[in-house]
Amino acid sequence: MSHTARLLVLHGPNLNLLGTREPEIYGSATLAEIDVRIREECQALGAEVRILQSNHEGALVDAIQGARTTADALILNAAAYTHTSVAIRDAVAALQVPVVEVHLSNVFARERFRRRSLLSDVVSGVISGFGPESYVLGVRAALSLLSRPPAGR
Ligand code: DQA
User: What's 73's domain CATH number?
Assistant: First the structure.
């Protein structure tokens, strides 16, 4: 990439409650603390980052559509919408830029309905189960995807 990489990090519903929400599953870090960690990593790696949280499916669709022209890669924790939203899946599928799906918890080790993601087959890859570090790994994965040519070339 010739210019500074522009990353968009999107947090879906209920992630604004992190810190107090089911801490035995999601840990004690607040979303603000996680965002600081994401910004530190982006600064260290020389990337620009924009971070948004929304509880609303349509707002997330709007933000994903916006990434078509304003971001080079998307790091997406669609939270519960991961398992339910065809609208978010379609918005992701329409994106030309790499998308990394992230989850704090290991969704494959939880209830059956969380093991199905409507996003996984339209994203570049999935990071699940590393707590707040999932986002840091997501940033690194996105930058690594941007620094190498797409597979098959
Ligand atoms: C989550 C996992 C989802 O199943 C859940 O609905 C969330 C958070 C995670 O980060 O572990 O809200 O995406």
Answer: 3.40.50.9100
Question: How many residues in the chain?
Answer: 153
What is the tally of structural domains in the chain?
1
Residue 77 alpha carbon, nearest atom of ligand 1: 13
**pTM score:** 0.95
Residue 152 domain-assigned? no
Interatomic CA distance for residues 66 and 61, integer angstroms: 9
Active site residues: 26, 103
Q: How far is the CA of 83 from the centre of ligand 1 (A)?
A: 9
For the stretch 1-27, pLDDT in tens is 668 999 999 999 999 999 999 999 999
